[in-house]
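Title: Prediction job returns without error message
Component: structure pipeline
Severity: low
Priority: P3
Assignee: unassigned

Description:
Job completed but the reporter wants confirmation the result is attached to the right record. Sequence as submitted:
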Amino acid sequence: MAIVRGALRVCQPFVARAAARQVVPASFVAVQQTRGFAAAVGKKPKYEDGTLEGRYATALFMASGSKLQKVYEDVIGLRTMMEESKDFKLLIETPGVDPETKVATLEAVCKKMGAEPAVVNFIKVLVENKRIKMLARVVDLFEVFYRAEKNLVVCKVTSAAPLSSSQQGQVKKAMEQRAEKGAQMIMEFNTNASIMGGLVVKMGDAVFDNSVATRLERIQIQLMHPVE
């Protein structure tokens, strides 16, 4: 996180100038090509996504090779910057900022982060192909691919009131028994008073709803049906 904040501080002047310049140089347009992501080809992710963002995320995943962990950390760092800096987010999402300035600024950010060359090259491709505004979604999908590769399973637990450490441990143990063998659980505990009691657990694509609110709703539906 300190590296991310440091990159934002160093590159703040670049971002401000980039946001102010919104003219696309004719020289850049003349040489711009919608080229593909030229990088070493590795294995495909276990999870497939056929959207345009998914294809870009797949290309980056395949280019990561043995540097998958570092590439993941780099792109998550870029996503964090977009979340923490309005100026950086504006730079990414504003189509009027000239590509040369945008590339120079992003290169400076990546250099400060110590980002992998594959990430820098990938960012350039997104800018050249006018897809840089998709960066946040591409990173989200890359994270899905990364977690699938590392056999990481996100388990989101919602309760009406905060669970104790002991209760959290019991929930984690129960969900581990439902997960595939060898899976590593990423537990996320949240509260929502509207469920009234019980738990709502989302693990991967599966949802286990044992909340009081849902049980009451089921009873109401049953009571509304006429007795035969």
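Comment from assignee: result matches the submitted record. Residues 21-35 have pLDDT under 50 and may be disordered.
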